[in-house]
Amino acid sequence: xxxxxxxxxxxxxxxxxxxxxxxxxxxxxxxxxxxxxxxxxxxxxxxxxxxxxxxxxxxxxxxxxxxxxxxxxxxxxxxxx
Length: 81
Description:
Elements: E1 8-11, H1 21-31, E2 36-39, H2 48-57, H3 69-77
Parallel strand pairs: 1-2
């Protein structure tokens, strides 16, 4: 991936990726185009994904969406529990 120019990038299951993948590779690919990053995954303890989530909640420059399986199932069924 090094050397690519990206306008956007998505990291799915981010906790399972090397903790430096974004900081050392993806962020450089996004820099030339002022691109955006999307991070998704299942929390697995207090790892890099957890730290990213904590920092993003405090930043007005980030959009944070947190959904549980119950949220997803309720929305899929059309309920308003």
